[in-house]
């Protein structure tokens, strides 16, 4: 049977497509036979994939969420990006990035008075040798203190906790935000049912997203995780990488830009290294 199906691909013109189809069928057939799959189980799988497609819309991509929760997105990400010398590790984009975030000046407050622990962020963008990269475009986005992104809150007016910065002559940018907290991925669809069925929780470890572009360099999409955050070892999309876990220590008293903060505040310092284009 497998041989007949593999042979049916003999006329495929694209050699890569031939390789992928052949290997996919061989492994799928092996999965079916080695697990003695029943008709009822296969019908359940087809129904699961059908429902996964049916809940997709302009603002929801359940197939990507399935790929994320099965660790496939992170595997592809690692294969694509981890062979690049001295580049900060990448991490999955996630569904909450919005193209064209508002331009924000260095020093601004992305949280604009939202509740949460204030956090001062001071990051640098350099090349692999540590040379600063001025004029790099840095998109930043994160959830609020309750774990929601602005796009999940239809009553909210305008973009919140997201912005686009440009690095200064020293390749740096600074801003205020709030300490990120854990939140569940959308779990009211088939992916949530899958997590439930296998006894997994839907939470992501707290993180701030960054997308960094500079002329002549590879674009870096990544996330930074506070080292004292929850779910670092059981992130629901397997997105945590060791080098992206960062201390965001607590401070009290005077702040770097003289802003008066009542009580404790956090601080995030990090250097992103991005590689030249191949
Ligand atoms: C996120 O970090 O925003 C995210 C990533 C993958 C799936 C769901 C959410
Ligand atoms: Fe996120």
Task: Produce the secondary structure layout.
Blueprint: H1 2-7, H2 15-34, H3 39-54, H4 62-69, H5 72-81, E1 118-126, E2 137-141, E3 162-166, E4 172-178, E5 183-184, H6 190-197, E6 203-204, E7 208-213, E8 220-226, E9 245-246, E10 250-251, E11 265-273
Parallel strand pairs: 1-11, 8-9
Antiparallel strand pairs: 1-4, 2-3, 2-7, 5-6, 7-8, 10-11
The structure holds benzoic acid and fe (iii) ion.
Q: Please state how the strands of the largest beta sheet are arranged side by side.
A: 3-2-7-8-9
Tally of extended strands? 11
CATH class of the largest domain, anyone? Mainly Beta
Structural class: alpha+beta
- How many helices? The count is 6
What's the oligomerization state? single chain
- What shape does the CA trace take? globular
Largest sheet: 5 strands, mixed
Kindly identify the CATH topology of the largest domain: Protocatechuate 3,4-Dioxygenase, subunit A
Cα Rg: 22 Å
Query: Which percent bin holds the helix content?
Result: 10-25%
Tally of domains: 2
Q: What is the average of the pLDDT values?
A: 95
- Tell me the distance between the termini: 43 Å
Could you please describe the fold and organization of this structure?
- The protein folds into two domains: 2-37; 72-273, Protocatechuate 3,4-Dioxygenase, subunit A (Sandwich).
- It contains six helices and eleven strands.
- It has helices at 2-7, 15-34, 39-54, 62-69, 72-81, 190-197, and strands at 118-126, 137-141, 162-166, 172-178, 183-184, 203-204, 208-213, 220-226, 245-246, 250-251, 265-273.
- The strands form three sheets. The chain has a five-stranded mixed sheet, with no helix packed on it.
- The longest helix is centred in the N-terminal third of the chain and has 20 residues, at 15-34.
- The protein starts with a helix and ends in a 5-residue tail after the last strand.
- Benzoic acid (BEZ) binds next to helix 4.
